[in-house]
Amino acid sequence: MGFEKSMDKTRRGFEESFQEAAFYNKQTADETHLKMLLELVYPNKGDTILDLGTGSGYMAFAIADYETDCKVIGIDIVADTLERNRQRALAEGYSNLEFTAYDGIVFPFEDNSFDTIVTRYALHHFPNLKVSFGEMHRVLKKGGKLVISDPTPNQSDAARFVDCFMQKKADGHIKFYTYEEFDGMLKEAGFEFVSKQDSVIRFPRKNPEEYEDLLRQYDQKTLEEYEINITGDEIWIKENVLNMVYQKHNEHLNGFYHQMNIHKDTKWARDIIALQEDDGKWGCFHSLSQRYNSPITTEQAIRRLRVLGYTIEDECIQKAVNYMDDCLTGKKEIPDRREVIHDWDIYTSLMLSTWIRIFTKDNTVANAVAGKWAEIVSAAFAQGQYNHEEYCKAYQDIMGLKPRGGRLVDFVHFYPVSLLVDCLDEKIEPLFLEYVLNKETGMYYVYDGRLYDLPQVFQGREASCYLGAIELLVRYKTGKDKLRFVAEWLEENRNENGRWDMGSSVNDKVYFPLSDSWRKKEVREADCTERIMRLTDSCM
Structure pTM? Predict the structure, then answer.
């Protein structure tokens, strides 16, 4: 089908759908899913956000409510529904919301116009996704965020029953894409993967008798996996949904992202991987022990490999994550000596869950541990500032015993700070970050000074460890706004070449070096610049 015919079919189909607003909303409205997407978009004051394929404005109105000091523009190919959206926005007094028609392919905006693009349940109608992704890349600002939510076929649905089912309604459905298909097109367009969450949607279609012939063509297992159900004059289907976040590459960073892959071939990486045991560990997990003949702990190994660019896509990390999952679920036990000053089982689950979630958010048990800690921390800040009594009370209620040991009584250290990314709501997160930044003793295991106080000397290990703490905090949604002062400090410390050099003393075999050797100053400078540019791309 040609582009114009495809767009026309989609337009007519949605014009009919929007005439029956109540049934359309029954198909797509989902408050739980909406909350998830709002947290992924997480608009800041002053942001300009594009809702692509806005339809009835379900997403656009929600974003405009969520952050009244941002600007939201919804675009769609269906003019009638856009006019209804405008009338609603006018009647309800929205001053930060606009709706614009477009032809379905070329976005009517200047380059670098938007901080964020979000698209919900729309891309399966687009006739040329590669071109559309190119347009998204064009209108996003450097470092801008792309949030995609779209159904995906079941892995076992090789015959693509779901596409045939969706095409029974004349609304221009083309196909649902797998994560691998999306990822390939997005990376080709210049986007970098950030995160992925899964959800489901159950929605009805009318006139189930029109689907009878189609249902007879597929085996019962396929139909059961989609939970096909006929109720009265409606046929229901359950579909899995991909919720993904990508980021537009900064053009000046492309060379550095390429270098990240080069670091995976360094002697540092080869030496570490050679020491990995068959079950995925590197000896003890947290502490070196004379009882265990290994020069490195599992934690030290995966921390260093992560710095060198290794991800869950790499075999050594997959093995390590599987090992940690086995330990977390009780199938195995880390060989470390049990520390009596802590509630060791709780502390172990905290460590393991933190490192699993650093590499993947798709682990149910680790996510459950993160959820418990989020409840505890949220209770501690529920009154608008930190209350230690409430922290201890919530800890006892949720964990079943009082907190014992410095790292459980005081949560400002590497594990909880890393674990709670994406777990705190929009009210608690900024309070949490403010508390962490103001903590006089800093962040245990990372940096031992108040984070609001910048290091006096840029060249040295103190500054490198300081950046290690900032690299954890910038992963939070509100981290960008909180950490602008760090970006300004880094800009002030560029050298005469416009780069950064933190000096030879930062060679700690943790954060540095990235390259095989620092015998040449320019190599050290390149490594320091790479690390800092990745950070400034996040917090500027």
Answer: 0.57
